[in-house]
Every structure is written in structure tokens, then in C-alpha cells.
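Board notes (copied after class):
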Amino acid sequence: MHRIAQNAFLHAYRLFIARGLLRRAWGRRLFYTAYELYKRLFEARDIAALRAYVPECGLVIDVDANVGFFTERFARWVGPAGRVVAIEPEANNFAELVWRLAAKGLAGRVEALLEALARHGYAPHVLARGGGGARACARADLDAILARRGYTDLLFLAGPN
């Protein structure tokens, strides 16, 4: 049953893209409502376990933030005195991330950055955009991105390899 439901969500996603429904406001809202449900049911069922690692008034770095599923939760958990740095390289996802944070009253806790990360140094990065053109986005080292913004005293940072 789990696999059938997951496949249904993924099929719906492909239809939304193919039919251009994400270009319409109602289509985006419907899609992102289903996306939240999909993340909660299939990809992040145990998200509450992360809460123990996010102190109130803390700093969280969310790399490849996408549209902010985790960013939103981190922003609530760190509270008004905490900070989340959300790094997302894709322009459409970044725009949705910023919109969602503002709509949920969390923009003041999150510094959203339209950047791409490189493991070592600088490398060109081109991101395709649906419906026309591409936008070049320079890759930068995570330490350099954070240092430019004054985040230099990080004691621990974990994420996907």
C-alpha cells in the first residue's frame, strides 16, 4: 500500500509538470499542499527526532533547502531569537521558499540564499529553468558563504555527504 500511494504522488507530480499547472497560483498551492503531505508520509516521517538537535536560539544551516519543508520546521524550533540559513541553488525553488517563509511569518528567522555549493573552491554551475532559458549560478564553498555573512563560530555542522 505504501508503494502504491508513493507512486500515485509521484505520478501526480509528473502530471503537474507536464500540464504546466505549476505556472498557475492555484496549481502551485495544490501541488505544495500535496508535497507537504508526501514529505510527512514518505520522506520525513521521523522529522520530530531532529528536534532534539535544534536548540532554541540556535543556528541551523539548511543546504539544498528546496522549497523549505525542513527550513520551516527549523525556523519554528530555533524560535524568534534563533537563525536558519537556507541555501537553495534553483531559482524557482528559491522563489517558492521565500514566498512560503513570508506567508508563514518565518522570514525574519531565515536568511535565504540563492547559491550553489561546491565541495572545493569555485566551479561554474548552470541551472535549467522550465519554460525558457537557464541561469548561471556560481558555486561557492560553504565556509566562504557563511563567513561572508558573519557566521564564523560554528561548532558542528552535519548534513548529507
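Comment from the instructor: Residues 120-135, 156-161 have pLDDT under 50 and may be disordered. The helical segments are 2-18, 25-43, 69-78, 91-103, 142-148.
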